[in-house]
Every structure is written in structure tokens, then in C-alpha cells.
Write a structure and sequence with these properties.
The complex is a heterodimer of chains A (115) and B (113). Chain A has strands spanning 4-7, 10-13, 19-25, 31-37, 43-50, 53-57, 64-70, 73-78, 87-94, 105-106, 110-114. Chain A is mainly beta. In chain A, strands 2, 4, 5, 6, 9, 10 and 11 form a seven-stranded mixed sheet that branches. A four-stranded antiparallel sheet of chain A has the order 1-3-8-7, with no helix packed on it. Chain B is an all-beta fold. Chain B has strands spanning 9-13, 18-23, 31-38, 45-50, 53-56, 61-64, 70-75, 84-92, 107-112. Classes of the chains: A mainly beta (115), B mainly beta (113). The interface between A and B is medium-sized, with 29 and 26 residues.
């Protein structure tokens, strides 16, 4: 009964391909995030959605497009994959309605390798 | 956003207490201090959060001095399974939405037998 689940866990693909990573949370949270963790283990936020609306969009190439069909899902689509996109991508969710919204729940991550 | 500074790594032995100090000199009045733990090949996991003085839960204790410019995460009697990266975060916990949860470099804790 995973709280935040991502699929796939591993993704190996060639440069130039288009791929998607799916994320679902069953916690009833309003806010979902995508983070990227590079080879040096730095975690950087990419996007944040609140109730299906984009609220944070960091400096991320246009090739990355998040889509939130409902507040329980936040998918990440990546066009024209490049070698530098290789990283672990984490989905997370939190509930800003609570007094302290800095407790986020993370998925297991998707290790993307572009060859 | 307040920047945080913490040691890159720490070694310890089973049964010892581990204390990780995080500096956040520019912490704002509304900022809370949150610590996360990340095991290899897993996502970060919330450990503890506090605003001032001391907070304790079943996993750890968090000590925050009066000036709030630093905080110390204390892990009592660590075991091998506590080997992980520990991140200190500072942010406005009361922001309605869009909290970025900015992660720094973290402290890699290695617990040895």
C-alpha cells in the first residue's frame, strides 16, 4: 500500500527518444512535486503542482512537461532525451493545508539512463 | 530561502549517539527547520521538524538554540541501518502552497560495526 508510487523504477533509453514517468499518491495531498537527483546526489526541484495547477516551474528545459490529470497524479513527460537527463527522478507530495507543510512524502525514484 | 551548511560526512559506530549540526545563519522568522533521511536507492524520508528549543520523536531529537542560526539532529544509539544521507532544510512551513523544499548537499553518515 505505497503512499507515493512511481513507474517505471528503471528506464534505459536512447538519445532523442520521448519517455514518460508516472506518479500517483494515495495520501489525499493537494501538492505534488518532481525532483531531480543528479550523480552528485543533489536534489533539485523541477515542478510543483497544487490541485492540478502548476505553481513552481524551476529553470527546466521545455523538453520536460509535467501533466496532472487529477490531484492524485503528476506525470512527467520528457521529449528528445539527452545524455544529461540521466538522473534519478523523484515524485513527492505534501499537504499545504496543514499548518506545517514541509513534510513531504517521496516515491522510490525512477532511475533514467540515456544512452 | 535560507541557505544551510552541514558537514559532508560523518563516521560513527553502532550504539553511539550521532549529532549532526546544520548552520542556517539567514533563517527567517517564519522558517521551520526540517530534517530528512535518504537511504541508497530510496526517496528522502521526513525525520523531524522544529521551530525552537527541542523536539523529540521516536527516531531523533532536534535541538535549536535561541538564536535559531543552527540546529543539531541527534540520533541516539545508531545501528548499521542508520547509514544514510541526512538533509537539513529551512523553509516557511506555513506557506500555503509552493514550498520548494530546497535540499542542500546533506551529510553522509556511515555507521560501522
Amino acid at each position: 500500500d505505497t503512499a507515493v508510487s512511481q513507474t517505471p523504477k528503471y528506464l534505459v533509453t536512447q538519445m532523442g527518444n520521448d519517455k514518460s514517468i508516472k506518479c500517483e499518491q494515495n495520501l489525499g495531498h493537494d501538492t505534488m512535486y518532481w525532483y531531480k537527483q543528479d550523480s552528485k546526489k543533489f536534489l533539485k526541484i523541477m515542478f510543483s503542482y497544487n490541485n492540478k495547477e502548476l505553481i513552481i516551474n524551476e529553470t527546466v528545459p521545455n523538453r520536460f512537461s509535467p501533466k496532472s490529470p487529477d490531484k492524485a497524479h503528476l506525470n512527467l513527460h520528457i521529449n528528445s532525451l539527452e545524455l544529461g537527463d540521466s538522473a534519478v527522478y523523484f515524485c513527492a507530495s505534501s499537504h499545504p493545508g496543514q499548518a506545517l507543510n514541509t513534510e513531504a512524502f517521496f516515491g522510490q525514484g525512477t532511475r533514467l539512463t540515456v544512452v | 530561502l535560507a541557505k544551510t551548511t552541514q558537514p559532508i560526512s560523518m563516521d560513527s559506530y553502532e550504539g553511539q549517539e550521532v549529532n549532526i549540526t546544520c548552520s542556517h545563519n539567514n533563517i527567517a522568522t517564519n522558517d521551520y527547520i526540517t530534517w530528512y533521511q535518504q537511504f541508497p536507492s530510496q526517496g528522502p524520508r521526513f525525520i523531524i521538524q522544529g521551530y525552537k528549543t527541542k523536539v523529540t520523536n521516536e527516531v531523533a531529537s532536534l535541538f535549536i538554540p535561541a538564536d535559531r542560526k543552527s540546529s543539531t539532529l541527534s540520533l541516539p544509539r545508531v545501528s548499521l541501518s542508520d547509514t544514510a544521507v541526512y538533509y537539513c532544510l529551512v523553509g516557511d512551513g506555513n506557506k500555503a502552497a509552493g514550498n520548494k523544499l530546497t535540499f542542500g548537499g546533506g551529510t553522509r553518515v556511515l555507521v560501522k560495526p
